[in-house]
Amino acid sequence: MHACPDKAHRPAWRVRVRRANYSAFNGYRRTPSPYSLVHCGDCGALWRTKAAYVDTLPDEHFSKAT
Known about the structure:
The protein is about 0% helix and about 30% strand. The chain contains no helices and 5 strands.
């Protein structure tokens, strides 16, 4: 899991999980956390961060498979 190294990709960054996590330790339930999971739609990078810029990023939306 590495952060996107290309700041030109920033418009494609989306938040998958905002200020929470899901872990086996907690029975895969949503647990509040200072960290968010961010995904780059251009290069596929995926990383967790507690940086303030997360507040400016939109949430990632998944379409339902038909």
